[in-house]
Every structure is written in C-alpha cells, then in structure tokens.
Write a structure and sequence with these properties.
The structure is a single chain. The chain has 332 residues and is of the alpha+beta class. It contains eight helices and 15 strands. The strands form four sheets. A six-stranded mixed β-sheet has the order 3-4-2-1-15-14, with helices on one face.
Length: 332
C-alpha cells in the first residue's frame, strides 16, 4: 500500500465556488505560476505518485459556498486519478482544510474523532499553562487534525492527518516583536503536539496500527527557540523518552545529526535571498507497522534521483507547491 502526505500551497485558489478547476492563464497564488501551470503540475505529481491515499494538507476550502470533497473529486476526475473519493473531518475557517483523497477499491474510510478524559476531541479546546503563570491557557486547533478509521483487505488502520501551528512571526513590526510572537507561537505549537501525543498514546495502548502524517511546522533543530523549550513538537509526538514510540526515519536522522546534511520537505522563496529549505512534513508509524517492510521517500526535485532525472516531474514538483510529497510504501 502507498500512503502519502502532501501540503499543496494555495490549492483552494485553483477552484471556483462550484469546485471546478480555474484552468486558465491568470496568476495562481504561487509566485510566477499561472493557475493552469500549477493545476497541470499537480495533476502530473498526483498521477506519478499513484498513491492509494493522500493526506492533503491545505486542501480546498469547505464553507457556506465551497466544498472540499466536490473540488477534490473534480480534480481527480479531471486527471483520471484512481483516488476518486475524498474525506474531510472538522472544517475550519482558514481556507486550508485537511483532507484524504483515496482509492475506494483499496480502502473504506470514515471520519472517526476520538476523545479521552485527558485528550478532548480536536474540534474542542484543551487547557494548559503556556506562560508558567499558574493560570491555564485555552488551546485550540485552527485546523483540527483529521482522524480516520480505515478498513482494508488486510485489516483496520488508523490515520491522523495533522497541520500544526506555524511558528512564523507574522505581523511582527521589529526584531523584539518577532521574538515575542515566535515564542508565543512555539508555546501554542508545543501545546498542540502534547495534546496530539495523548491521543497517540491512547491508540498505542489499545494496540492500534497508527499512522500520523502531515505538516508539523517543526522539527528537531529547526530554530533557536527549541533550546528554550528543550525539545521540538515532532519529538513530543514521536514519544521521545516514552516506552511506546512512533517512528519516522527522517525525524530520526535529524535528531541524530545536528550538523551536516539533512532531509528536507519544503523549499521557500525569500525575496533577494537564497531559498530556505526545511524538514516539516512527516509520516510517523506505530511499532507494529515497522515490521511490515515500510519504505519512506521524500519527492524532493533535487534530492530524489528519480525525480531529478525526470525533467518534467522535476519541474512539476517545483510549480505545484512549496512542499514536496512524503510517501510511505508498506506491506500491510
């Protein structure tokens, strides 16, 4: 089985309110890329991946006028993809949903939100003292994780799609303001990851086969504020120091190598500066799944040999998004 996670930058702007592709030469929300170019690039990437299921981060919007499932099924039909069905969980108001595009001949899926005494449902709130002032702060997910119960011919599987809080200091007016916002955002991101780890721990205790995948906006050694808090959100969700751990080889590589070459899943344009690359996207698996011959790939257009040598696919990956797909092949 092939399962992927893919953050598609500004996917929503490629569709009209009827969920139809705006496949023309107007500019997309990506730098110097038209809607037709981005749409064609995404079609090529999804077709080349040929995944049984793709957890799409920043999927098209669901609101009073728009519908994620309608947009994604139109997209799949336009390119003749076998992932013809789509699922979302709790819609949000950011125009960036978390959605699963999947092949219904391979799996049956349903949104299955969970709740435990110390881990509320993800569309609710949690409380945690973020400022060390003995007063609990209210924690919310702006994009509630998508909890999916999957049935396959080989048995049940659980997926949790994640888009954690960004730590970028948006709106900062000076260096001091940027530091304040960055620290506050990291507190919120870590609180979300602690909340998610409680859910993960409950599934591991129950013996569930679990895959947690998506964009964590974080990773080991990613910024200087990690030293202030001791560890990254990714380490928290993986369960570093716990008996039951999730595993992702790219996270493991980053944790063990503070200096030197690192895998990356995103490439951001900065005006007048070199591109910034980061490891933000992960596919974490439970202990039982590690025995099923898992194999991970990051489809980075310059780091993955097959993607680099295929000039059309390399260009498509650069036009499609500022993130690149992470793919898991596993023998369920």
């Amino acid at each position: 089985m092939r399962i992927a996670t893919y953050n598609v930058e500004w996917f929503n702007t490629l569709f009209d309110d009827d969920g139809k592709l705006i496949n023309d030469q107007t500019w997309s929300s990506r730098w110097d890329v038209t809607k037709a170019t981005q749409t064609a690039a995404l079609g090529m990437v999804f077709e080349a991946m040929d995944a049984d299921a793709v957890m799409i981060i920043e999927a098209p919007d669901t609101s009073t006028k728009r519908n994620t499932i309608k947009a994604l099924t139109h997209f799949a039909d336009h390119f003749g993809l076998r992932t013809t069905d789509a699922l979302i969980g709790f819609a949000n108001d950011t125009q960036q949903e978390i959605a699963l595009l999947y092949d219904p001949k391979v799996m049956q899926v349903r949104h299955d939100p969970q709740e435990t005494p110390d881990s509320p449902r993800f569309d609710k709130t949690d409380q945690r003292d973020l400022n060390v002032d003995a007063a609990p702060d209210v924690i919310r997910w702006s994009k509630p994780p998508l909890e999916v119960a999957v049935e396959t011919a080989h048995g049940p599987l659980r997926l949790i799609g994640v888009h954690a809080k960004s730590k970028a200091p948006h709106g900062a007016e000076n260096a001091a303001d940027a530091m304040r916002i960055s620290i506050a955002n990291r507190r919120k991101q870590l609180a979300q990851c602690i909340w998610l780890r409680k859910r993960v721990a409950a599934h591991l205790a129950a013996g569930d086969d679990l895959i947690v995948l998506g964009d964590f906006n974080d990773g080991p050694g990613l910024d200087e504020y990690e030293k202030l808090f001791g560890r990254s959100g990714v380490e928290i969700v993986l369960g570093e120091g716990a008996e039951d751990k999730l595993f992702d080889p790219h996270a493991r590589m980053a944790l063990s190598r503070r200096v030197g070459a690192m895998p990356t899943t995103a490439r951001f344009r900065r005006k007048g500066q070199p591109y910034l690359q980061a490891l933000l996207d992960y596919i974490m698996i439970s202990p039982g799944l590690r025995a099923k011959s898992p194999r991970w790939q990051i489809w980075h257009p310059f780091d993955h040999p097959d993607c680099y040598e295929n000039a059309a696919l390399r260009t498509a990956l650069l036009h499609a998004s500022d993130h690149f797909p992470v793919i898991l092949d596993i023998k369920l």
